[in-house]
Amino acid sequence: MNDKHENDLNRDPISGTPGAHPVGTGVGAVAGGATGAAIGAAGGPVGVVAGAVVGAVAGGLAGKGIGESINPTAEEAYWRGQYENEPYYARDRSYEDYAPAYRTGYEARARYQGKRYEEIEHDLKRDYETGSNEIGSNQARLAWDDARHATRAAWDRLERAVPGDADRDGK
């Protein structure tokens, strides 16, 4: 199998199984579990537990679906080839300067599904500045005021790619 195809499989880091989307699955499971627990509260303590379990499973599957629509390898390749064509691009900057901002934007689509960009921009700034993204450390070279444009571009690219209007902004 060639390296490009192997990278596109998005293998689970532990089991090696293709199609792993731990962020999307985890986010969906947490959201679904909380929703299920709230709905199950009408049935008392047993209802809360049952609702949380059912909600977590359903949410995890939904989150995995969102995660599968976001391929970090493909996004990185796209932005590596595109960044110089963006209106915010500065000639004295390299792809490596913008990469953490792009990563913050495309990873956020799985973590903050259903939210509008404007609702979570403060969270994205924190994620970017602290390295609180899936990779863990963004080694940021740009200040947020410069990076936010690249983060928004990556967010918008995935918003257009995911069917429907996931962030309810009319686009």
Properties at a glance:
mainly alpha; 64% helix
Would you give an account of this structure?
- The protein has 171 residues and is mostly helical.
- It folds into 2 domains: 21-68, no CATH class; 72-161, no CATH class.
- The chain is built from 7 helices and no strands.
- Helix 2 (22-40) packs antiparallel against helix 3.
- The longest helix is centred in the first third of the chain and has 25 residues, at 44-68.
- The N and C termini lie far apart (38 Å).
- Mean pLDDT is 72; it is low at 1-8 and 60-67.
Share of residues in helices: 55-70%
How would the global form be characterised? elongated
Distance between the termini: 38 Å
Order of helices and strands: HHHHHHH
* Number of helices, where a helix is a run of at least 4 consecutive DSSP H or I residues: 7
- As a whole number of angstroms, the C-alpha radius of gyration is 18 Å
Portion in strands: under 5%
Instruction: Report on the biggest sheet.
Output: none
Weakly predicted, low-confidence segments: 1-8, 60-67
Q: What's the count of strands? A: 0
Class from helix and strand fractions: mainly alpha
How many discrete domains? 2
Mean pLDDT: 72
Short description:
With 171 residues, this protein is mainly α. The protein has seven helices and no strands.
List the helices and strands and how they pair.
Blueprint: H1 3-8, H2 22-40, H3 44-68, H4 72-82, H5 95-111, H6 117-130, H7 144-161
Helix pairs in contact: 2-3, 4-5, 5-7, 6-7
